[in-house]
Amino acid sequence: MIDRLSPNHDARPDGTAIDILLLHYTGMQSAGAAIDRLTDPNAKVSAHYLIDEDGCCYRMVDEARRAWHAGVASWQGETDINARSIGIELVNPGHQFGYRPFPGQQMDSLINLATAILSRHAIPASRVLAHSDVSPDRKEDPGELFDWENLSRSGIGIWPTDAPTTTEIMKFSEAMRLLAEIGYAAPEDTVMSQSARNVLLAFQRRWLPSDLTGALTPETAARIRDVHSKIISS
């Protein structure tokens, strides 16, 4: 653990529990560029931790403080995601600069760090989230190449165990209702809209990366029902 402290943080509101672990990719061309931005007082962005592709981990903001990583976001009706979360940035060029898989050393370091964080805070498995989960209209990270299943095998987050069926039929309005109950800012739409497509695509990036269509396919409908069941019962 290397300290590269950022000035970009403030106090968490009194009485706000830390109950979200939020994962990002940096979306920049190098680790150095990401560190420079996250420690630049003019940028007004930060994260609690950053993990380089070689597994090297940087501590940037004390967990007791509110880092500025989520931006405009919401989950299960809560909008100040920074206040209740710990943010981890994973060095990756992202979709703009040559998106690629996350190396084993980086994932191993993330598993070690996340395990330690979860030992310190009562964060439910269902609230280990992607930036795209809480900001589906703006963000894609950490994206479809991130290995959520591997993370779940290490006791971090949840992952459906069964392949989705190809025969699930679901009304569009029901899909939006279930997505909203999971936590997404899903619109109350009965037909496709841009906002609904963004939420469906965010869901697919997180839970069904083999089906990045932004459409309510039978596989997506089945996975929505499966994830909903797991989260509501957790």
Report what the structure shows:
This protein is α/β, with parallel strands linked by helices. It has eight helices and eight strands; from the N terminus they run E-E-E-H-E-E-E-E-H-H-E-H-H-H-H-H. The protein has helices at residues 31-38, 94-97, 104-120, 131-134, 148-153, 172-182, 194-207, 218-233; strands spanning 2-3, 9-11, 20-25, 49-51, 57-59, 65-67, 85-90, 128-130. A six-stranded mixed beta sheet has the order 1-5-4-7-3-8. A two-stranded antiparallel sheet has the order 2-6. It is globular.
Total helices: the number is 8
Structural class: alpha/beta
Summarize the helix and strand pattern as letters: EEEHEEEEHHEHHHHH
Total number of β-strand segments?
Answer: 8
Alpha-carbon Rg, integer: 17 Å
Spatial sequence of strands, sheet with the most strands: 1-5-4-7-3-8
Percent helix: 25-40%
What distance lies between the first and last C-alpha atoms, to the nearest angstrom? Answer: 32 Å
Shape, please? globular
Main beta sheet: strand number and arrangement? Answer: 6 strands, mixed
Instruction: Determine the mean pLDDT.
Output: 95
* Proportion of residues in β-strands: 5-15%
